[in-house]
Request: fold
Amino acid sequence: QVRLVESGGGLVQTGDSLKVSCAGSGSSFVGYSMAWFRQAPGNEREFLGATNYGGLGRYYADSVKGRFTVDRDNDENILYLQMNDLKPEDKAIYYCAARYGSYGRSWTYYNIWGQGIQVTVSS
Reply:
């Protein structure tokens, strides 16, 4: 089973870009749909974007479409989230998630999670 570890978070300013990564170990990403979520205090875990198990499809939440990009490298077992034009409301803990098979937009669909990484955007 895949194990996931996020990296690359931190403090940025409004309008900056940031790329976070999710490294997998224990198994190849092949066959897994991979997704990014975030959770701010008091809020539910929010879907941001995903790639399906084939690795070609990309799916995004309307709230981040055009600003965030999800990509994956099956050879290196890394999932990326490129975030552009960051806003203070993007401050949250960001999680990567995996599920063997088709993707979904609900956090309940995924059974493998990273530990999360903090992203803070100052105004």
